[in-house]
């Protein structure tokens, strides 16, 4: 999914979306795809120095949710909006909020007799084919009806919409919250959660709304915003999220899709866990954990099965807490994401991030706004010609194919290129000279055989350096071992930053002057673990260590005492209530994927696997369905409108919306 492999095959003119008419524009592309499948194209193989007949097929489409309806033919609006559930979608229409809650060959036979009608003003015909509004042109491909997985649900936009709903509802942002007056009147119509239903004031002219269990005070909203505003993130992981936080207005706005992705995976759990009640916080943390685990670069089928079961339980827990208006189609779609991972593989190859970035590049080609399509086509052709020519330029000419990346860990310094017993890795930043005097603690030489294994292990680690220095003086020791036994050099270079494993590390002093946090490090080491001091059977296991970089020094080239290549990066988020408590968040390199089944590779497994720890996630509470829905320590909200006046202004919708009905559940009377 890199821009070098993208081909602009179709450019649809016009300021608006083509809608149902997109099939007209796709006809030339479909003809080419049929030719690639049936006849193939003669292609030259530069490695074998011969030609061969190449055939190709279309696996699936990558699109956002509105484009899903255009390409598939299934309407993604109304009471049957879910394209995966189809006719089995269970939905309820909320008349006050004006919204609906929420095998391939069979589809082909259903749509065989459908005649497509194009144009913006064409209405959906009631021909007994459910929510299908057309027969997709992709069914003209001979293999399309046999595809088990044809169109992708875009995880990028699903995450963005869910973050918008969570933040807007928790902070009670006007126009963004799902817990508004109309949602409370919907509760009254449905006959559920009586404690949250609107009530008349004593004078009967106004309406009183009780605060829900997820409501926050002004001080708590300030703390919520301060956590996101004060969090320093590693270099290149996300944009400056602090600029999107408006503490005075108690709102968060202006963040991009990747900012929402990062907040959902790493940041939202901290203020949610610290501020909200347990039954609310645990459900939201489980939702954040689901998206973090579903977005792993390596995921097993067993974990997919677990995620599929867990997201169903999580959504059930959320339905007990948040109002029905919260559960639109975007909150429903995560129930199908695990199955799509089972069919299509990791989401990194199927989401919209590469497409959106490439669309931004194409839009940057526009110089004449009245002829935007021509500007994009001209810029695309020019860029393709330049890329083609740059492949034949000498290696000393810098092109996009040999350009040094920003976090390049291959240092070009001649000093670091000298051969050594321990080859230097990484590239230092901000080097300066300084003296380092290292003092050794006197070794304890106690030959008492009754000492415990823990004490012997402690003495071994302390006495080994002196023993090795004496042993290295003998003639049977090679030269490299003698050089190692001389001990550390008293003069060392000191750096304020270092680039290694495509990570950019800074010292704490340098981090204090920046808005990013690059001083967090984590290391996984094989360590003997003692249960107690008297433990005679220690167990060797991998232990994860966390810390902050105070100083970066370079000793004599043949005497490295800290292996920077073994260190990974993490960052810390401070607890809003306890200043000495920090939550550690592991990060992962965005440009590294493990595509081989072989577990042994040059890079540690911890790089290739998304560092999530499901075993530390709190379990869902076993409360037998009884939860506190009202926050009694806050005053109720008063709106200057009587219930009968509200009903007049928010009457039932005409046409199709008035036909939607809901089924009242007798078990939903509990508040």
Layout of helices and strands:
Blueprint: H1 22-38, E1 41-45, E2 50-54, H2 65-72, E3 93-94, E4 99-100, H3 104-110, H4 155-170, H5 181-190, E5 199-200, E6 207-209, H6 218-230, E7 245-246, E8 251-252, H7 257-267, H8 269-275, H9 278-294, H10 301-319, H11 329-332, H12 337-344, H13 353-363, H14 372-390, E9 427-435, H15 453-471, H16 479-485, E10 491-500, E11 503-506, H17 508-511, E12 520-529, E13 539-548, E14 552-554, E15 568-574, E16 582-586, H18 605-608, E17 637-639, H19 643-649
Antiparallel strand pairs: 1-2, 3-4, 5-6, 6-17, 7-8, 9-10, 10-11, 10-14, 12-13, 12-15, 15-16
Quick overview:
The protein has 671 residues and is an alpha+beta fold. Helix content is 31%, strand content 13%. Strands 9, 10, 11 and 14 form a 4-stranded antiparallel beta sheet that branches.
């Amino acid at each position: 999914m890199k821009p070098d492999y993208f081909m602009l095959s179709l450019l649809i003119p016009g300021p608006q979306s083509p809608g149902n008419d997109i099939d007209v524009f796709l006809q030339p592309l479909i003809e080419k795809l049929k030719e690639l499948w049936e006849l193939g194209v003669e292609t030259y193989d530069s490695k074998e120095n011969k030609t061969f007949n190449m055939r190709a097929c279309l696996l699936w489409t990558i699109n956002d949710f509105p484009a899903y309806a255009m390409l598939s033919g299934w309407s993604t609006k109304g009471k049957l909006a879910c394209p995966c559930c189809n006719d089995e979608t269970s939905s309820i229409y909320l008349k006050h909020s004006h919204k609906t809650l929420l095998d391939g060959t069979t589809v082909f036979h259903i749509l065989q007799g459908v005649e497509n009608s194009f144009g913006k003003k064409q209405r959906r015909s009631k021909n007994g084919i459910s929510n299908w509004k057309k027969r997709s042109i992709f069914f003209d491909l001979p293999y399309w009806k046999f595809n088990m997985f044809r169109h992708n649900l875009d995880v990028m936009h699903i995450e963005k919409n869910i973050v918008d709903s969570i933040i807007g509802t928790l902070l009670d942002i006007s126009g963004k919250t799902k817990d508004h007056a109309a949602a409370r009147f919907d509760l009254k119509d449905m006959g559920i959660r009586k404690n949250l239903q609107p009530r008349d004031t004593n004078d009967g002219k106004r309406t009183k709304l009780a605060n829900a269990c997820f409501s926050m005070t002004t001080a708590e909203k300030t703390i919520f915003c301060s956590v996101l505003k004060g969090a320093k993130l590693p270099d290149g992981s996300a944009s400056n999220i602090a600029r999107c936080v408006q503490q005075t207005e108690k709102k968060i706005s202006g963040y991009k899709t990747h900012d929402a992705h990062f907040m959902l995976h790493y940041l939202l759990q901290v203020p949610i866990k610290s501020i909200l009640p347990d039954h609310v916080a645990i459900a939201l943390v489980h939702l954040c954990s689901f998206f973090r685990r579903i977005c792993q670069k390596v995921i097993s089928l067993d974990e997919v099965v677990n995620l599929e079961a867990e997201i169903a339980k999580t959504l059930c827990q959320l339905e007990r807490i948040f109002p029905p208006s919260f559960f639109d189609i975007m909150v429903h779609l995560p129930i199908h994401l695990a199955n799509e991972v089972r069919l299509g593989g990791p989401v990194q190859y199927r989401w919209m991030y590469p497409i959106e970035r490439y669309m931004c590049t194409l839009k940057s080609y526009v110089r004449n706004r009245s002829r935007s399509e021509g500007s994009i086509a001209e810029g695309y052709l020019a860029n393709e010609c330049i890329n083609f020519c740059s492949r034949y330029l000498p290696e000393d000419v810098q092109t996009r194919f040999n350009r040094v990346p920003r976090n390049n860990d291959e240092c070009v310094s001649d000093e670091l290129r000298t051969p050594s017993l321990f080859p230097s890795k990484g590239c230092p930043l901000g080097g300066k000279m300084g003296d380092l005097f290292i003092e050794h603690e006197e070794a304890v030489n106690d030959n008492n055989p009754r000492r415990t294994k823990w004490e012997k292990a402690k003495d071994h680690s302390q006495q080994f350096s002196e023993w090795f220095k004496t042993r290295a003086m003998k003639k049977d020791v090679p030269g490299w071992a003698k050089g190692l036994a001389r001990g550390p050099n008293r003069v060392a270079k000191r750096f304020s930053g270092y680039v290694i494993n495509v990570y950019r590390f800074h010292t704490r002093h340098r981090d204090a002057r920046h808005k990013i946090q690059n001083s967090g490090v984590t290391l996984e080491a094989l360590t003997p673990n003692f249960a107690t001091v008297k433990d005679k059977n220690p167990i060797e296991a991998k232990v994860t260590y966390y810390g902050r970089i105070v100083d970066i020094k370079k000793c004599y080239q043949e005497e490295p005492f800290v292996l920077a290549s073994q260190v990974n990066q993490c960052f810390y988020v401070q607890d809003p209530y306890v200043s000495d408590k920090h939550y550690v968040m592991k990060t992962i390199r965005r440009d590294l994927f493990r595509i081989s089944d072989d577990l042994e590779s040059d890079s540690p497994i911890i790089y290739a696997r998304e560092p999530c720890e499901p075993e530390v996630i709190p379990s869902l509470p076993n409360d037998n369905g009884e939860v506190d829905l009202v926050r009694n320590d806050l005053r109720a909200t008063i709106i200057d409108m009587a219930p009968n006046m509200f009903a007049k202004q928010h009457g039932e919708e005409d046409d199709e919306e008035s036909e939607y009905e809901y089924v009242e559940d007798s078990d939903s009377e509990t508040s």
